[in-house]
Amino acid sequence: MPSFPNYPAYLFDLDGTLVDSAPDIHAALNHTLAAENLPAVELALTRDFVGMGSRALITRALEHHGVKDGDPEPLLQRFLDYYTANIAVYSTPFPGTVETLTALKTRGALLAVVTNKYIGLSESVLADLNLRHFFDCVVGSETTPNPKPCADPALYACNALGVEPGQALFIGDASPDVGCARAAGCPIVVRRDGYNNGIPATQLGADHVIDSITELV
Prior knowledge:
Helix 6 links the parallel strand 4 and strand 5 (137-139). This protein is an alpha/beta fold. The protein folds into two domains: 9-20 and 91-216, Rossmann fold (3-Layer(aba) Sandwich), CATH 3.40.50.1000; 22-85, DNA polymerase, domain 1. The protein contains eight helices and eight strands; from the N terminus they run ββααααβαβαβαβαββ. Helix 1 (22-35) crosses helix 4. The strands form two sheets. Strands 5-4-1-6-7-8 form a six-stranded parallel β-sheet, sandwiched between helices. The chain has a two-stranded antiparallel ribbon with strand order 2-3.
């Protein structure tokens, strides 16, 4: 197990890193597909589809069903309406999340969420799971002109927290997180069992792979 220094700031991805949100995303996605007379997808596939935002999620589901040139826009609002109304029915923080965030805040660290989820949805799930109070900044998909894997979200969060990128440890679970951290100049660790699009965590290019965010403290 690696030993981590105490960083002034920590930037956390949301889905698959802090929160197991796939079950609620899965329910909303299958609700949307059913309205188009398309079969449901399995939860494991939904976990692989998560990470690049709602529009990309729907596009990947359409491609899975052979709808190669499907337009996700007509389906997007239906998905968002259902998900917004059912955002934390089955979602839960991963084991050790609350304890780790509490320990980091106790020692004075600044914390941010950096996600490709819409900002309103991000704020809602954090509030519903009683996690919002831990974070000094929440960066969503539309907060910056370019979402992850571009550097913009991490740089925005670092600026909001008043730290240099090298002082902020990024914790994620998938390639967009690694790409964003690398582009911004942040050190990066990834959770082994997150939503990593089927790519083994050891192949994502992070500085370290962790089994639980409790390893940070």
